[in-house]
Amino acid sequence: GENVEQHPSTLSVQEGDSAVIKCTYSDSASNYFPWYKQELGKRPQLIIDIRSNVGEKKDQRIAVTLNKTAKHFSLHITETQPEDSAVYFCAASMGGGGSQGNLIFGKGTKLSVKP
Amino acid sequence: EADIYQTPRYLVIGTGKKITLECSQTMGHDKMYWYQQDPGMELHLIHYSYGVNSTEKGDLSSESTVSRIRTEHFPLTLESARPSHTSQYLCASSEYGQRPSYEQYFGPGTRLTVT
Question: For every residue of chain B, which 3-state class applies, written as one string?
Answer without folding.
Answer: CCCEEEECCEEEECCCCCEEEEEEECCCCCEEEEEEECCCCCCEEEEEECCCCCCEECCCCCCCEECCCECCECCEEECCCCHHHCEEEEEEEECCCCCCCCCCEECCCEEEEEC
